[in-house]
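Pipeline run #58 for the internal structure catalog. This entry was flagged by the ingest filter as a single-chain record with no existing model, so it goes straight to prediction. Upstream metadata was stripped on purpose; only the residue string is passed forward. Reviewer on rotation: M.T. Logging verbosity set to normal.
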Amino acid sequence: MAFTRRSFLAGFVSCPLCAAARAEGAHWSYDDVQNWGSHDSASQACAIGGEQSPVNLTGAIKADIHAPALSWKPQAFKLANNGHTIQANVAPGSFAAAETGVFELKQFHFHTPSEHAIDGERAAMEAHFVHAGDHGDLLVLGALMQAGGGNEAFAALMAAAPPTESEVELKKPIDAEALLPKARHFLRYEGSLTTPPCSEVVNWYVFSAPVAVAADDIKTFAKLFPMNARPLQQLHRRVLLTD
């Protein structure tokens, strides 16, 4: 593999999901986002990275690309309040197959407002579905969420969401695909984790159509986390593609 700036910054963290888990226990917050890069050596990419996320998704180039093929299993997820978001931890056996390989779904979580913007507009919320590859790279699906209709899967998650830092197990299985839009047009680019350590190892697929969820369920999340979205980062010389 050629040595690139991207691989150099990824080298700060050989296991980005492991480092992200360690970062969850570190003292960082959205109030001190400008200082994330100085917390420890593993988080330097937050400050010096050139392929950071999220970004404003605009000016995409149309290309012959395909959305990852999903084989997710409905599960009674373990749902955690980790102090930064509500996160569903996924048992082994759910996968996304993309041009670059097969990735296993590890967890999904939520942000308000949406972290990515489309043509300068942010949605009410965004769900991130984090998949891990065999070589330290990640594939993350981003689904924007707007008020406008009920979504049984999201309602069940919000009804069970712990109000304080803890973990619960859902009583009934949920199909996580119900949290994705029916129209699967997407935008793709190379980026990073949006929380420390900000590792630049993420293949981002953000769906262009939002998912409609109940306004009351958005309010339930916002009561727990009024703002947990990183500011938009510069795209720099990256290429943004769309199908």
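catalog note: The chain has one domain: 5-242.
catalog note: Helices lie at 5-10, 16-25, 45-48, 152-160, 215-224.
status: ready for reviewer M.T.
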